């Protein structure tokens, strides 16, 4: 299965907890997964097989809720090329 890029933005809602600390819970799940990822100001982008990334994304959502978010909004963006890998480096290295 080829690698894809999956961007995930989780926006937690809480009347009492800090949003950034809640988002940090999602990033910790992604970091512990072992997949290649990059944290950006508005989303975190992961690279790997689609099925694996979707499982990680679900765990990240669950972590934010378990940390006390009352509600979350989740936005995904995916780049998929059938039979061909999608690489973050191919897209970003020319600009670094």
TrEMBL record:
SUPFAM superfamilies: MTH1187/YkoF-like (SSF89957)
InterPro entries in the record: MTH1187/YkoF-like (IPR029756), Thiamine_BP (IPR002767), UPF0045_domain (IPR051614)
Family: Belongs to the UPF0045 family.
One Pfam assignment: Thiamine_BP
Thiamine-binding protein domain boundaries: 8-93
Gene3D superfamilies tied to this protein: 3.30.70.930
Designated name of the protein: Thiamine-binding protein
């Amino acid at each position: 299965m080829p690698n894809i890029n999956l961007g995930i933005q989780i926006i937690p809602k809480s009347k009492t907890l800090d949003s950034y600390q809640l988002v940090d819970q999602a990033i910790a799940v992604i970091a512990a997964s072992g997949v290649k990822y990059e944290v950006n100001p508005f989303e975190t982008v992961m690279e790997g097989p689609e099925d694996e990334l979707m499982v990680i994304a679900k765990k990240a959502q669950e972590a934010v809720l378990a940390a006390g978010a009352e509600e979350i909004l989740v936005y995904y963006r995916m780049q998929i090329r059938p039979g061909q890998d999608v690489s973050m480096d191919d897209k970003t290295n020319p600009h670094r």
